[in-house]
Amino acid sequence: MKPTIIATIALFAAACEHEHTELTPQCEMPTLEGDPPCWLKVENHDNCYIWDREVSNEETATWSGQCQAGKAHGRGKYTSEYVGNRDTKTAYGIGSYINGKRNGQWKLWFEGAVWSGSYVDGEGHGQWEERYANGDVWVGPVVNSKKHGLWEKTRDGRHTCYEYSNSKLIKERGLCRKVDKIR
C-alpha cells in the first residue's frame, strides 16, 4: 500500500475511535465539532444516542423513534428520568431528531410545565411558548436555547413584558403595550 493510503486509513480509524468516545453522558470532554459533548445513551436501543446540553450523569432516556448510524433519527417520543430535589422526575417530548439532535417543532412536558417551540441542530431557536401549572404563560423568542428579546408573561389576564439577553433578565418593562407586541 502507498503511504498516503495507509495514513488516510489511520486517520479514519482515529476519527471513528474519537466519535465513539464522544458519545458519552459526560459533558466536560472536548469534541471534534466543538459541540458540548452531552450525548446520552438511549436505553431502549442498542448503540443509540441523543444530544442534549443539559444531560446529567444520573439521567436515563428512551426514544420511540428510529436510530440511524448510532443516533436518534426521525419523529418520535423522548422520555427522560432524572433526579431533581432528591426524587426521580420524568420529562418527555414529542418531535424529531436528525443525527441525534432535536430539529423542527417540539413539545416538552416536565414538572407541570409544557414548552413548545422549534429547534435547529439541537438548539432552541425561534418563537417559544411556556405554560406552567400555576397558569402563567410566557411567550417570546429563543436564540441558541436562551431567552433573547421581549418576552410576554400572561397571568390572570394581565400581560407583563420582560426584556432578556442570553436568558438573563435585563429589564421588567411592566404592562405590555401594542408597540411592545409588534416588535
Please sum up the structure shown.
The protein has helices at about 5-20, 180; strands spanning about 40, 50, 60-65, 65-70, 70-85, 85-100, 100-110, 115-120, 125, 125-130, 135-145, 145, 150-155, 160-165, 170-175. With about 180 residues, it is mainly beta.
Order of helices and strands: HEEEEEEEEEEEEEEEH
SS-based class:
mainly beta
β-strand amount = over 45%
In helices, the fraction of residues equals 10-25%
Shape: elongated
Question: Got a strand count?
Answer: 15
Distance between the termini: 63 Å
Low-pLDDT runs of 5+ residues are: 1-22, 24-32
- Mean pLDDT, as a whole number? 81
The helix tally amounts to 2
Q: Largest sheet, if any?
A: 13 strands, antiparallel
Rg: 20 Å
Q: Main traits of this protein?
A:
single chain; about 180 residues; mainly beta; 13-stranded antiparallel sheet; disordered N terminus
Structural notes for this entry:
The protein has 183 residues and is mainly beta. The chain has two helices and 15 strands. The strands form two sheets. Strands 3, 4, 5, 6, 7, 8, 9, 10, 11, 12, 13, 14 and 15 form a 13-stranded antiparallel beta sheet that branches. The longest helix has 20 residues. The chain starts with a helix and ends with a helix. The N terminus is likely disordered.
SSE blueprint and pairings:
Elements (H helix, E strand, L loop, with lengths): L2 H20 L16 E3 L7 E3 L8 E4 L2 E3 L2 E14 L2 E12 L2 E10 L2 E8 L2 E2 L1 E6 L5 E7 L2 E2 L1 E7 L2 E8 L2 E8 L2 H5 L1
Antiparallel strand pairs: 1-2, 3-5, 4-5, 5-6, 6-7, 7-8, 8-9, 8-10, 10-11, 11-12, 11-13, 13-14, 14-15
